[in-house]
Amino acid sequence: MSDIELQLQKAEAALRKVEEWHNEVVRERNAARELLDWSWGVICNVSNGDWSTQTPEWRAAAGTLGEEIHKPSGTSRPVDRPPTTS
Question: Under a CB-based contact definition with an 8 Å cutoff, are residues 47 and 53 in contact?
């Protein structure tokens, strides 16, 4: 086997490992997204969906979470908000 063929085999093996890693990352990301969507559904239905019965701090936190969840991918960043007062 020539050096080039050996290098090609190594490169192909490395590519397979990268593909396996990528597939695992995609599966984990999808599972995390499903959990996040489920969690958001629970939050949305607190007090039968009537957030007005919650504290201002709770509503602000839930609103911030909702904004972050629904941002297009890659645009999330920390939100600077003044503290909420009652």
Answer: yes
